[in-house]
Every structure is written in C-alpha cells, then in structure tokens.
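Pipeline run #58 for the internal structure catalog. This entry was flagged by the ingest filter as a single-chain record with no existing model, so it goes straight to prediction. Upstream metadata was stripped on purpose; only the residue string is passed forward. Reviewer on rotation: M.T. Logging verbosity set to normal.
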Amino acid sequence: MSDHDTAFVHVASVKLLLVVWVALMIGTWLTVTASNVDLGWLNIWIGLGIATGKASLVGLYFMHLRWDKPFNAFVFLTAFFFLFLLIGFAMMDSGQYQVDLIPGYSPGMGG
C-alpha cells in the first residue's frame, strides 16, 4: 500500500456544491441590486458584507477549509485579521488629509 491510500480525502457531494453555487449566485444578484440603491455611506459596508459572505462560502466549501485541520483555519483567519488591520490604518490615514485632496473643494458644503 502506498501512503496515498491512507491519506484523508474529503469529497463534497454534488448537491452541496450546487447549493453553495446557488448561494453565490444569489449573493452576486444581491451585490448588483445593492449597488443600484443609494444608501450613502452604508453602500460600502453592505458591499463588503456581501463580499465577505461570498468569500467565506468559497473558502469553506470550494477550498475545503470546512473539513481541514483547525490550524489552517487559524492561519486563514489571522491573515484576514491583519488584512483588515492594515486596511483600517490606511483608511484612518487617508481620513487625515482627505480635505486637502482637491483644493477649494469641501464635501457636504453645497458644491
């Protein structure tokens, strides 16, 4: 017997993968629909929420993280934590000089 015969292999059912695919299609429809509704500053958070949900489905089911070792999930979540941390720092930094980006323009002051 070779080592490959005793290795752990998980095969997802076609039904499960189709359900996840339908959920991703609904998420895509939600993204397009949400982009056509003007909710001001909430649009970015709604879009990011939908994208996070879709990325979670892809990671869990198509990348098989749901059935993988817990250490791999820890590494994956740690990478996301640092990604959000760095994006947060970049957003805080750009907020400090945003008024100076376009000289003479003051947002929210009637044009």
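catalog note: The radius of gyration is 21 Å.
catalog note: Helices lie at 14-35, 42-62, 70-97.
status: ready for reviewer M.T.
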